[in-house]
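Researcher: Let's try something more involved. This one mixes different molecule types, so please make sure each is placed in the same coordinate frame as the others.
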Amino acid sequence: MTKTTFVEQLKEGDRFDDLFLVKSVRLSETKAGKDYLILTVMDRSGELSGPVWDNVEACHKVCRAGEFIRLKGMVQAYRDKPQLKVDSVQEIDRNEVDLADFVVATTRDPQQMAEELQRLVRSVKDPFLRKLLNHFFKSGAIWDRFQMAPAAKGIHHAYAGGLLEHCLSMARLADMLAGHYEGIDRSLLIAGALLHDIGKVDELAMEIGVVEYTDRGRLKGHLVIGSEMVAAAAARISDFPPDLLVQVQHLILSHHGRQEFGSPIVPMTVEALLLSFIDDVDAKMNLIEQLRRKMEGGAMQWTEYQRSLERFLYLGGFEEKEVAEETNTPARQQSLFS
Amino acid sequence: MTKTTFVEQLKEGDRFDDLFLVKSVRLSETKAGKDYLILTVMDRSGELSGPVWDNVEACHKVCRAGEFIRLKGMVQAYRDKPQLKVDSVQEIDRNEVDLADFVVATTRDPQQMAEELQRLVRSVKDPFLRKLLNHFFKSGAIWDRFQMAPAAKGIHHAYAGGLLEHCLSMARLADMLAGHYEGIDRSLLIAGALLHDIGKVDELAMEIGVVEYTDRGRLKGHLVIGSEMVAAAAARISDFPPDLLVQVQHLILSHHGRQEFGSPIVPMTVEALLLSFIDDVDAKMNLIEQLRRKMEGGAMQWTEYQRSLERFLYLGGFEEKEVAEETNTPARQQSLFS
Amino acid sequence: MTKTTFVEQLKEGDRFDDLFLVKSVRLSETKAGKDYLILTVMDRSGELSGPVWDNVEACHKVCRAGEFIRLKGMVQAYRDKPQLKVDSVQEIDRNEVDLADFVVATTRDPQQMAEELQRLVRSVKDPFLRKLLNHFFKSGAIWDRFQMAPAAKGIHHAYAGGLLEHCLSMARLADMLAGHYEGIDRSLLIAGALLHDIGKVDELAMEIGVVEYTDRGRLKGHLVIGSEMVAAAAARISDFPPDLLVQVQHLILSHHGRQEFGSPIVPMTVEALLLSFIDDVDAKMNLIEQLRRKMEGGAMQWTEYQRSLERFLYLGGFEEKEVAEETNTPARQQSLFS
Amino acid sequence: MTKTTFVEQLKEGDRFDDLFLVKSVRLSETKAGKDYLILTVMDRSGELSGPVWDNVEACHKVCRAGEFIRLKGMVQAYRDKPQLKVDSVQEIDRNEVDLADFVVATTRDPQQMAEELQRLVRSVKDPFLRKLLNHFFKSGAIWDRFQMAPAAKGIHHAYAGGLLEHCLSMARLADMLAGHYEGIDRSLLIAGALLHDIGKVDELAMEIGVVEYTDRGRLKGHLVIGSEMVAAAAARISDFPPDLLVQVQHLILSHHGRQEFGSPIVPMTVEALLLSFIDDVDAKMNLIEQLRRKMEGGAMQWTEYQRSLERFLYLGGFEEKEVAEETNTPARQQSLFS
Amino acid sequence: MTKTTFVEQLKEGDRFDDLFLVKSVRLSETKAGKDYLILTVMDRSGELSGPVWDNVEACHKVCRAGEFIRLKGMVQAYRDKPQLKVDSVQEIDRNEVDLADFVVATTRDPQQMAEELQRLVRSVKDPFLRKLLNHFFKSGAIWDRFQMAPAAKGIHHAYAGGLLEHCLSMARLADMLAGHYEGIDRSLLIAGALLHDIGKVDELAMEIGVVEYTDRGRLKGHLVIGSEMVAAAAARISDFPPDLLVQVQHLILSHHGRQEFGSPIVPMTVEALLLSFIDDVDAKMNLIEQLRRKMEGGAMQWTEYQRSLERFLYLGGFEEKEVAEETNTPARQQSLFS
Amino acid sequence: MTKTTFVEQLKEGDRFDDLFLVKSVRLSETKAGKDYLILTVMDRSGELSGPVWDNVEACHKVCRAGEFIRLKGMVQAYRDKPQLKVDSVQEIDRNEVDLADFVVATTRDPQQMAEELQRLVRSVKDPFLRKLLNHFFKSGAIWDRFQMAPAAKGIHHAYAGGLLEHCLSMARLADMLAGHYEGIDRSLLIAGALLHDIGKVDELAMEIGVVEYTDRGRLKGHLVIGSEMVAAAAARISDFPPDLLVQVQHLILSHHGRQEFGSPIVPMTVEALLLSFIDDVDAKMNLIEQLRRKMEGGAMQWTEYQRSLERFLYLGGFEEKEVAEETNTPARQQSLFS
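Model: All components are placed in one shared frame. Result:
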């Protein structure tokens, strides 16, 4: 079954019969003692909630958070907001759905990104660092999670695949800077660019449609977790030079640039300084890119106040992209999940 | 040979023949091309420098930094400062000296401190935390270094044995607070008090008479190093609960209390909050104790401006202690090294 | 008449006939020129508002802010919020009500706290400080107000009796620290713990159910007011040593620890430093205790973002207490007012 | 005996026989066991030190800190600095000296300032505030000390009479602003201008030639002391309105403008806001005036870096004043002390 | 046609037929595809919005933002807020309306302010500065806009004519200070007071009823724009001394007092320091004046929390003014626009 | 005459006869009334001072600050510092000296840098920006001064030609970033990189061997001066789009990135954000490069504490460069001045 109706297109009065992801379901009771469900469903374009009054028990079995359902119903207005009115729900197997319909994801091609990452890893001359990178980026659970991870919760690159996109962009910048300035250890800087946020794989718990901090993530932070992950990996590579490990750990631990931003130590090597710069630049540029993609037309205009930057921005949209974005269906990223 | 002459007692014109530690030695050359040495020797009371003009080559062999020598000479005035005039130097075996003559050390009895630590460890009810503490504090290289370590470079508890003294004082405070407030995990808080600075054993390179940061110490910081050490130890204890490890790591990583003070994450558990408080209190109280010990008499008076506290302090000395401290020989701490 | 219905238990449609405290009453007029009242009543569990359409004049006479009434009515929904519908009101004498039903108060036994305070005062060795403490804590208007005062408006110990609870907790900590560190003036530190917030008695105007700043409180602050109160008391104690008074005033004036927190001078004596620490610890620990009391079960979980601490906290509830708190009636603190 | 030789005029080799104030005297001992004195004398233009080798005992009796002596001797060079060589000293009665020769004082006429102050006090319409001002400024010990006090230790108006000069300047500004803005309580603002620093009379111990903080001054600060002094004075004025006292205390307590500058509360009334502004302006303008008086000629030039203002200033001197200041004798302020 | 109905007087159910300014108009479409307008009209007392269902096309032609209309209709309640119900609209020529009915303006007489400005300009002794001032304040587009400009968007003097009022107040303060302190260049200080915000004429786009930043204003800021405007004016005055121009530009560029407040350089001359002070004082005093004008009666009371000042204020109203302000019609300022 | 002796090579006792630049000369008088000169001479390696006792009048005519002299003399020790002893001085024409001997200059080839700049200018597609760049960088006084200017006084690129070197490095980074991120206006970013510090040409007065702020530079700052210079240049280019000028001015005014760093407005366009980043990176990288060039060997080591970065750095030298830098004569940069 191919999903054709997306939440953001639904208007009051619309009827639909399509696939949705159950975000949450809560059993409640009226004053009169009657059971009912409050059901929230979502797809990649938004979410919709409403009560389920009939067949509550059967419906409750089908509608479990994180599962997919086929939902027939319509959109009603309730206190000026659209509300879901459920007619029927039906269980759907996860294999029948295209995950790309349910997750906001990078617009870049995941396959291409993976290949670019491999090329970058191969270009690292230092054999120990190359082995270290292969440990994380060749295959396995970390690699699987890394590909799907957002770079942050709700700020920059906040979508599936965003972490990979961010690391690749930084690695390309690292490559440029290593060519621009004299005496930069390119292997180290590129390894730092690719590994600096590796701890996020463990700091963030990513389910379809939900990103949350893990307890461990909050109590230790992704810098320390990343530093530990790299140490564990290096321990499995024979003769990995201890000083080199300290350098990589320093890159990871110091990449927030300042202690008040959560780095236990400030960047003290050339590579660590450059890494903290390009992390900052790339994060801000992605945030701006997101703002520009939402603009209509290329003309310069003022954005809303951007709290994270503490300023208004004066931006133009990406003119030539407008055509593509004006198609009716929200853009899909099939390859990421196929 | 028993050392009887200490640097702080030497006045212009004094002759001496006693044991000293070579702090540094530098071969130099006069304009006329003649070799000479600039020798700096020290004991626990201070240091003294001067040129060596005769037997330079032989003297250079004997006077290596970190080694002990028997030195005959006198004190001269040179540009209003006392200068060492060397008559002869003689090699001395490290076993022949009493290390306590050369190192500023805690005034507390090391043996008693070790025993108190053992009692505290035994009082920890959680079996995993008790095993973890035994891993560090029973014997072995870490325990040897821990006993000798200062708690900091030049601020509080800045003397051999100071780290142990600081951790014990904190553990006693932890014990009190665990009794005072409801719902404190005493095992965890005491483990945190004893382990919070364990990374300093690796962050600081302690030679006799010199404390320096290691490269690794500067590039990672003792919080992250300590967190790693604890993880490594827990990995060797079978079935050590992962959540408990995270709690201990959180205590260590957050004990500076604020990110701008170098903690990658702020204290987020009750025990972590209390630990950061008692670390702060105990460090400041030791700093004040050092100031008070230098005062004569018990009368309240104003200290010099204390840069680390950004204020003047109004303190009285410890009256009853004055007698002991007025003896001519600088106080010795034999037991620490015997 | 014994109050059995509490605001927090009232649901839409419920009818009641019980005692309430009038929080505010406002005479208003419809567009059509008809008078009506907007009445807000409260008890210790919450408050409820609604219009009074009938017998407006008579009702207005009875319903004066700060007075108790017997109120018959029901709960209606109005714009999705519960609203008071008044059937009748009747004047009630203050002596007929149990004040504990109307005020959020400390869970500790006031009598026990008063006795503990007396023991602490008697344990103060310095005779002048003991007399000073007796001046405030033996009897009289200040003592009456002190017992009933919250320690703060809406942050820590924000309930009747909270100030006494806070000061006692601090005094016990002071006692421990005076035993732990050498050279602490225990008399002074305990006096400081008990008197540090004495100015709040004047800074805050406490009526039943309302705590507000006085003009004088806002324009001078409780630190300066407390310092003045202590000076006035000392002036009545013959031969009170001027230097000792300055020390006590310094403790009060500096106990916020830093100028940016409102202390005109920073702590400059050992006792003042310790006092500012334990004030900070005890305030934060009470805030956390309040959070933990609201949790169900003992399992660790993340709190809401705590603005005053600028962080999330990871806390477990007090398991054994849960039973008591699950009883249907909100916990009462009879002894405080009887 | 009229003083004619001033320290700042003395050059190497000069002989002199004149009056000086003993700033300090210290008995010392040579290595050889011989007693000698280290004597420091001063006048309003500077100070000079040197050893006294002969008649040590007799000389020690005469030369007590704070006393005046007739000193014969010469200036020698010692390590490139001028040193005092004493030939003889002789006791001098304080009545025989003109104090103006020994104290850096305001250039304004003290008598005129006192009269202007009286006029300002008489112009205050509120009878209670007028009485309050008369309490401080009519006569008595506080008035004597107030007239001689500097406004600060080493920053602005740092000379005898500076406090009076500063308060008068502020009162004139207060008068202007009360005329400029609507609804200013002129009586209150002028009272605030005259009383805002009254606590300095107690905070600073002023001996001839020396200004030091008192213990009490450091432990309470001049804001709180001033607030107390005003309360004590008001207590002696029958029916002094309590609210008015709180207003005056608020002016004093808040006049530093911000908590981080030591005000326990920030200005919250119109008069308090204006007072904190004019205190700031007048202090900075006096600092600048001092800089300009030291400049030669009227041309604009850059000052040294001014640490208290964190900037360089671009100033011109006071051209017409140069003539007066080029006279050989340092300017005298006879009237202040006669 | 004379406007008699003002928005702030309109209550639910009121009918009206009066002049309004169109603030905005937006063409919209119902789900059913029917066009309608959302019209917002305003006068100086407030604004009102509502849908227009009939004669949409004709109405759309008449109701253009910034134009005046005669509007017949009534006030309805819609979700508890008053809503405009339009019966008919009619085009009105701008000359037929009294602009003072539509703009919040200074309460001072514009003519008097203009004359006072001229007197101040004539009093400036330096001929070049006088010419410079005449350039801006004699006539022409800048002068026209200057007279109508608010001093700020929504903070102090935020009403038509506010900028002129603010500059005049500052110039009078400048005059006083130039008389109070020695060695102030009065010409320069008064020129600075009058010109310091001249860039706002360009930074802010002022339409009737709307004040917005221009792109240029946001991208350069009024300090730099003002500095440029002065340079351009000076370029037209023959022989304008370059150093004098730099002084005036320094006054403008530094008048925010600190870099973090947007001054690229801090005040470094006496006049620049004074200017930054009086700008700060006058802005705060106007903000307070606005608060006081809204108070009823003269009694002291606490304001709401003032975010821009980070405090509550304790203010009394202007008693004698109350009479004037209690008249039913919102105060008019005819002279500003006539 | 070719200079062969450089100040940094001169040791006590050395005689010399070579070319020097007069840095300063001051006529003084001994106590005995004899005239003498205090002469300070310099070359690119350092400076040397000493008194001139003979032929004072003739010598004074020859030795004017900023002029070149042939100086015969020797080096004496005076209070442990080398002092100049002058035997004779002789006037030298500026054309006879190689300026490169007297100025610390960039190690890059000035001719190559000029050509690279031209290529970059030609690559700017926007015709107005290209014209604007040509206005500054084609020829004329500004271009002459620009080439010789340091990028800063004593921090980064603090040597002749440093400004050009810095701007070129930034322009290359700008080029890379414009290729890396989508939707960057490359013309604008490159123009910003080349022009951002153009105001320094006016802010700094650069004489041979001396860099000082101009009065105008200090009172306005190079950001505002640069913005004015660009506006003046654009005014001469027909039809220069006003919006484009505002964009360029915004780049210049905001390039310090934050108001507290002296930018009157923060970067609000994409290009301005990127420009402030690359300015920061390039300045820090040059500072580090200077540190690395002073290191011997390539091994990692800790630098002194770097106050401008508030940290120690862990750097390795540039190994392959060491050979060149070990030559005896300080490196020369002939081409810059020939």
